Amino acid sequence: MEYTFILSSLLNPCSLISLILIVLIFVFRSSFRLNSSRKLQLPPGTLGLPFLGESLQIISAYKTENPEPFIDERVKRYGNVFTTHLFGKPTIFSTDPDVNRYILQNEGRLFESSYPSSITNLLGKHSLLIIKGNLHKKLHSLTMSFANSSIIRDHLLVDVNRLVKLNLNSWSDHVLLQDEAKKITFELTVKQLMSIDPGEYSEKLRKEYVLLIEGFFSVPIPFFFTTYGRAIKARRKVAESLLSVVRERRKENPSSGNGGGKKNKDMLEALLEEECGLSDEEIVDFMLALLVAGYETTSTIMTLVVKFLTETPLALAQLKEEHEKIAAEKGYSGSLQWSDYKSLPFTQCVINETLRVANIISGVFRKTTADVTIKGFTIPKGWTVFASFRAVHLHQDNYKESRSFNPWRWQDDLASMSSIGNGNSFTPFGGGPRLCPGYELSRVEICVFLHHFITHFSWVPAEEDKLIFFPTTRTVKRYPINIQRRNCQVE
């Protein structure tokens, strides 16, 4: 009946004329806004279809293995910075590394992060991804201090080795690598945040968390039977679960979270410090956001690095040789130490190249807080800007044969590995004040995983799988592989 009513309404001459007038008005307004924008020296471009803009085109492109034509066609027509209309807003799309760097470095001055309310509802208004100003600076600095090289070396690396090996020991002959990698990164993040080992609590939390994650990429209709509605419900359960841990920890040490002046052993203890002055709600939102960051991105890189290596036998052979040398010295039962991690140059090349080709973070949305003039263009205050990392990473001017997986390209520029987030053409972890605070820890986790996986297993793909990039970078079938244990054992 509903569809019959809609159809009859559209066939009604008056209604049809009204609809045409609405569309024409929208087209006129879009055209007027773009023409007016040209007077303001906005980048050239098009606002696309009425209401929808070019959202359908970019979504369709990113659901394939090759989203590049969406960007390439517009860059060829308009240049490296162009105007479009995405997800309900006119947007400046940048594929220029200098412009992207300018956007990242001017966070908090000329630009600010901006997320739709549907995302805020799931992350929480106190999430590190959303908060701004001094509170963001304080919590970002705190997170960096818990994931720096010395902390990883002296405290975290032991748990990374232990939990990776624990998970590998449970693998059967056939695994969905993407799912198993996510389990590893979730358990690692829970341990680092709250010092909780894998068990009933973490597994129950993870199951609710999976439902929460699904909501980020769904239509934000909050009914209980929708994906988004289930995500909102799961979010409440995750928050309640984290809150119970926070309150219990406060009871244990109500005056301070540092155990009478001892060095903090996890992130939660630091958040409970008196000098932070954070409420329980703020702490829960903060931890929930770190779970998001640690769970999705690192696990995807773990999966894709194995996929790319499998498809590049020469690279796999060289990587195996590098890790076999260390494993043989330790009798295959030892853990990867910090000195080992620093002595694996080709592994770092492989990780860099996976980050470049995969583009787990395709780019970032920002909103202008003032009129911004750059490269001869003026972007009005309040406009959305998208800095595309993917476009820079896969541009032929920046990387020869840029769309091929070639880890050897990094051997000629090993120094660049220490400038992640600071260079113009390689920004897999963002940059500026919002540089991912866990980028070094993420690399360590990937390296430890590769070490134990490569030295203890052989594998073949169980079936063909392909990579797509919407709503996130992932494999369609979660990368199923058949594995076989080698003679050595993961102990």
Automatic annotation (TrEMBL):
InterPro entries documented for this protein: Cyt_P450 (IPR001128), Cyt_P450_CS (IPR017972), Cyt_P450_E_grp-I (IPR002401), Cyt_P450_sf (IPR036396)
Cofactor or coenzyme needed: heme
A biological-process GO annotation: sterol metabolic process
Gene3D superfamilies: Cytochrome P450
Annotated positions binding heme: 436
PROSITE patterns the record matches: CYTOCHROME_P450
Key words, A-Z: Heme, Iron, Membrane, Metal-binding, Monooxygenase, Oxidoreductase, Transmembrane, Transmembrane helix
Ranges that cross the membrane: 6-28
Protein's pathway: Plant hormone biosynthesis; brassinosteroid biosynthesis; Steroid biosynthesis; Hormone biosynthesis
Membrane topology note: Single-pass membrane protein
GO cellular component, one term: membrane
Chief site of localization: membrane
Domain of life: Eukaryota
One Gene Ontology term of the molecular function aspect: monooxygenase activity
Cell compartments where the protein resides: Membrane
Family: Belongs to the cytochrome P450 family.
Identification of the protein by name: Cytochrome P450
Organism: Papaver nudicaule
